[in-house]
Amino acid sequence: MRLTPLLGMALALGLTVTDVAAQAATTNSPFAPVILVNGLGVTGYEIEQRMRFMQLLRQPGDLRKAAEKSLIEDRLRVWAAKQAGIVLDKDAVAKGMTEFAGRANLTSEQFVAELAKTGVDEPTFRDFVTAGLVWRELVKQRFGPRVRISDSDIDRAMLMESERGGGTRVLISEIILPAPPGQEAEAHAEAEKISQLRSEAAFAEAARQMSAASTRDNGGRLDWMPLDNLPPALRPVLLGLAPGQASAPIELNGAVAIFMMRSIDEHGPAGTRAQTLGYATLALGPAGSEQAAQLAQKAAAAKRCDDLYTVVKGLPVSLVSRPDPAPQGALPKDIALALAGLDIGETTVLTRGAGQELVMLCSREAAVDDAKSETAPNRDAVRARLQNERMGSYSDSYLADLTANAVIVRP
User: Fold this and answer.
1) Would you call 251 helix, strand, or coil by DSSP?
2) Of 320, 363, 321, the residue nearest 339 (C-alpha)
3) Residue 379 pairs with which residues in a beta bridge?
4) What value, to the nearest 5°, has the Cα angle with vertex 220 and ends 219 and 226?
5) How far is CA 119 from CA 104, 122, 217, 363, in A?
6) How far apart are CA 174 and CA 160, in angstroms?
7) Would strands 320-321 and 275-286 be described as parallel, antiparallel, or unpaired?
8) Which residue has the higher pLDDT, 152 or 140?
9) Phi and psi (nearest 5°) for 403?
10) What does the alpha-carbon distance between residue 353 and residue 255 come to, in Å, rounded to a whole number?
11) Do 101 and 111 form a contact (C-beta atoms < 8 A)?
12) Residue of 150, 67, 57, 131 lying closest to 386 (CA atoms)
């Protein structure tokens, strides 16, 4: 009997998975695979290492789930790159490790030494960087020819940034859909449906039913706000919407956002353009837990960021985080978005994966180099930004497709 090519491949993959799964089931070794991704194993040791690495990088939420998701995606990146024949030499990987360490103002050797202090070994760092590098090369090869930025695209983006942003206010509604590990595809599918809505009433009803934002009870409606208060990457998206039109889904940290433009005022108060924001966060705990409710109730009386340390009296002080003030564009997307509608001393609660965080605005100031922002944007810089945005969109969609079609087994 002659097997079809598809059936033959399926049987071959089944045998591989069965063999490895059987081996994993008969050993308690931390180096045995606990997850198989298209036949590539993820070991318990790798998961523990990635958790420590994420903890060092201050990753919020359930670290176990986040580590597993990250490693599964890395296996898919490496698998897809291998199918495309992409191989990196040692020099390219070493350069990538140096670039990553440079973000912390450290050499590669210094960064590895810091990792070792927390129990993270060098191969963990190297594998993490390698997966990112091969994926970047794969996305570039696969989608690079499709990304063409025209002069009119640049002109439009520059017009939005330099002419319309200064005194513009927007009246928008928001829906934030949680996308915890393993449920990203469902969240994206629901977000795509919402983005097709063309009625403020329908959007408000969807917000009441599905949004995780604190505005859900108000139909997702936000008050008038200066466009400059919003994250820089979000401004051109909103300026491209007509009243009653919803945006495409926007990736946040453990969530997906959709916005609807209700009205726009291009003659509002003059904006400050570039802003530097100071904020603090309080990790409340799992969403819906008694601890989260109690901490949120105590934090309601806080008027300043320093007051949050009083809220956690008797608890680990690490529950409160207060990063140095930074430009809007350097902040995590969900944090920057949450701060957009806050005055100093005000708070809101974010759902990040399976956990919740309270965010308080500590300061909002004009950037030190704000005078420079009054000059026309550089065309090359705008072109590069638009290219990165489009490549990022292709990258996210491709990874989602790979995940949806992957054979993932937990022996």
Assistant:
1) strand
2) 363
3) none
4) 135
5) 18, 10, 45, 36
6) 21
7) antiparallel
8) 140
9) -65, -45
10) 7
11) yes
12) 150
Q: Which helix (H) or strand (E) holds 286?
A: strand 275-286
Give the residue among 89, 114, 91, 116 at the shortest CA–CA distance from 103. Answer: 114
User: Rounded to two decimals, what is the model's pTM?
Assistant: 0.48
Pair of tokens at residue 159: 């017009």
Would you call 283 helix, strand, or coil by DSSP? strand
352 contacts 60 by C-beta, under 8 angstroms: yes
Confidence of residue 51 (pLDDT cuts 50, 70, 90): very high
Partners of 359 in the β-ladder = 281, 348
Phi-psi region of 322 (alpha: psi -120 to 50; beta: other; left: phi over 0): beta
Question: Domain segments of the chain: what residues?
Answer: 13-145, 160-271, 275-370
Structure tokens at 356: 């919740």
> 303-313: per-residue pLDDT in tens?
889 999 889 88
Q: What is the CATH number of domain 160-271?
A: 3.10.50.40
Q: For residue 105, with 0-12 CB atoms within 10 Å meaning exposed, 13-18 middle and 19 or more buried, which class applies?
A: exposed
3-class SS of residue 272: coil
pLDDT at 184 exceeding the cut of 90: no
Superfamily classification of domain 13-145:
Porin chaperone SurA, peptide-binding domain (1.10.4030.10)
* 13-145 and 275-370: identical CATH topology: no
Q: Which two tokens stand for residue 154?
A: 């640049």
CA distance 385 to 138: 19
3-state secondary structure of 39: coil
DSSP helix/strand/coil, 223: coil
CA distance 124 to 115: 10
Q: What is the spatial distance between Cα 214 and Cα 203, in angstroms, rounded to a whole number?
A: 15
Q: From CA 235, how far away is CA 225, in angstroms rounded?
A: 12
Residue with tokens 């030190």: 368
Q: Which residues of 334-366 are buried (b: 16+ CB within 10 A; e: fewer)?
A: bbbbbbbbbeeeebbbbbbbbbbbbbbbbebee
Find all residues with CB under 8 Å of 193, minimum gap 6, and list them: none
**Distance spanning both ends of the chain, measured CA to CA:** 31
CATH code of domain 275-370: 3.10.50.40
Strand partners, 172: 261
